[in-house]
Automatic annotation (TrEMBL):
Lineage: superkingdom: Bacteria
Keywords from the named record: Methyltransferase, Transferase
All copies of domain Methyltransferase, residue ranges: 46-138
Protein name in the entry: Class I SAM-dependent methyltransferase
Pfam family, one: Methyltransf_25
Provenance organism: Paenarthrobacter nitroguajacolicus (Arthrobacter nitroguajacolicus)
UniProt KW Lyase keyword: no
GO biological process, one term: methylation
GO molecular function: methyltransferase activity
Keyword presence, ATP-binding: no
Length: 251
C-alpha cells in the first residue's frame, strides 16, 4: 500500500511550486480560475486536495470563498506560508472521507488528482464525499487526463510523455489494475540541492471518462458539461484530457 503522506513529504512540497511556469503559468491558471469562479457564483467553493494553493489562492483573490481538504501535512504547511487559515481554511484528511462543512455551491478536483486514489472504491467514495458537501444544486468539477493506451507500442509497458531540456516524464502501465506510475526525471545544473539529477515517482489509477460518469451517477450526479480544457473547447476522441462538470441530480 502506498503511503501518500510519505509521497507528498517536505521535499515534494518544497519543490512543488513553479511560479509562472508549467501548471503555475498564467495561460494554465487564468482560464482555470475564470471557469471555477463562474461556476461558484456567489457561493462558497471547496477544493479537494488543495495542495499548496495553486488554484485556491488566485480563486480566493477573485472573490470566491474557498475552503480545502488536503492529506499532506507538508503541503498544508507550504500553503500556510502564503495565506492564513482565516482566508482559506483547510481540513487535514483524505478527500474521500474528510468533512469540511456543507452547502458549498462548488467542489472541485483539478490536475488529475482524483487518480491519486488508487482503487475504484476510493474514487467512488470521493464522489460520494463531494455530494455530501454540496448544496442541492451544487456542482463537482473534475479535471483529468485521458489514458493514452493507444500510444503503447506492442509488447511495451511504457511511454515517454514529456521530453524537454532538463525534464523527462515516462509513464509505465499496469493495464490489469488500471495503474500507471509517472517517473519524473529532472536533470541539469540548476537543481537547488546540487545533484546531477532528481527522480520522483507518483502512482495513479487512471479512469476512463465513461467510468467517471458512472461513479458520478452512483453518487447522485449527472454530467452537465465536458470540455477538452478550461477554454471550453470541444472534447473529442483525440483529446488528451477533459474538464467534466457534474451537477447534483434531483433528490
Amino acid at each position: 500500500m502506498i503511503n501518500q503522506q510519505h509521497l507528498w513529504d517536505d521535499d515534494a512540497a518544497r519543490n512543488y511550486d513553479t511560479p509562472g511556469e508549467g501548471m503555475f503559468s498564467p495561460e494554465v491558471l487564468d482560464p482555470t480560475v475564470e471557469v471555477l469562479s463562474q461556476l461558484a457564483g456567489d457561493g462558497p467553493a471547496l477544493e479537494f486536495a488543495i495542495g499548496t494553493g495553486r488554484v485556491a489562492i488566485p480563486l480566493s483573490a477573485a472573490g470566491v470563498r474557498v475552503s480545502g481538504i488536503e492529506l499532506s501535512h507538508a503541503m498544508i504547511s507550504r500553503l500556510r506560508e502564503k495565506v492564513g487559515e482565516s482566508r482559506i481554511p483547510v481540513v487535514q484528511g483524505d478527500m474521500s472521507e474528510a468533512r469540511a462543512g456543507e452547502n458549498f455551491s462548488l467542489a472541485f478536483l483539478v490536475f488529475n488528482t482524483i487518480s491519486n486514489l488508487l482503487t475504484q472504491d476510493e474514487q467512488v467514495r470521493c464522489f460520494q464525499n463531494a455530494a455530501r458537501h454540496l448544496a442541492p444544486d451544487g456542482r463537482f468539477v473534475v479535471e483529468l487526463w485521458v489514458p493514452q493506451l493507444r500510444s503503447l507500442p506492442p509488447g511495451h509497458g511504457g511511454t515517454v510523455e514529456v521530453s524537454r531540456p532538463g525534464y523527462l516524464l515516462v509513464d509505465t502501465y499496469d493495464v490489469l489494475r488500471q495503474h500507471v506510475i509517472s517517473h519524473h526525471v529532472q536533470f541539469g545544473t540548476d537543481l537547488s540541492d546540487g545533484r546531477a539529477a532528481r527522480i520522483g515517482r507518483t502512482p495513479h489509477r487512471y479512469v476512463w471518462p465513461s467510468e467517471l460518469d458512472l461513479m458520478a451517477r452512483l453518487a447522485g450526479f449527472e454530467l452537465e458539461s465536458r470540455w477538452a480544457d478550461w477554454d471550453r473547447s470541444e472534447f473529442t476522441a483525440e483529446s488528451r484530457s477533459h474538464v467534466s462538470v457534474y451537477r447534483m441530480s434531483e433528490r
